[in-house]
Fold:
Amino acid sequence: MTAHNDNHSHGTVKSYIVGFVLSILLTLAPYYLVVYNLLQAQVAYIAIAIFALAQLLVQVVFFLHMTAEDKPRWNLTAFIFTAFAALVFVVGSLWIMYNLDYNMMMHH
Structure:
């Protein structure tokens, strides 16, 4: 059996519980904003986006453990590339849907 000692920080039970509770709160807050119609549509979109970014940060810090470190940053580099690709997909999809809606509504 090979010993596996690579000095990676995997977090504590307390940090996982804090991350879990924050994740639940950051999921329930926009849900209640939408279900109970507490904000106007445009403000709700912005609030949901802010909660989504906060959720992303919680996931990255508490579960993926991508914090400041002295080691090579391959994980951070891969994460940044993945985030950029996801941003391109989301923005591109929204752009396409907006243009389709605009062009379809012009013919009515």
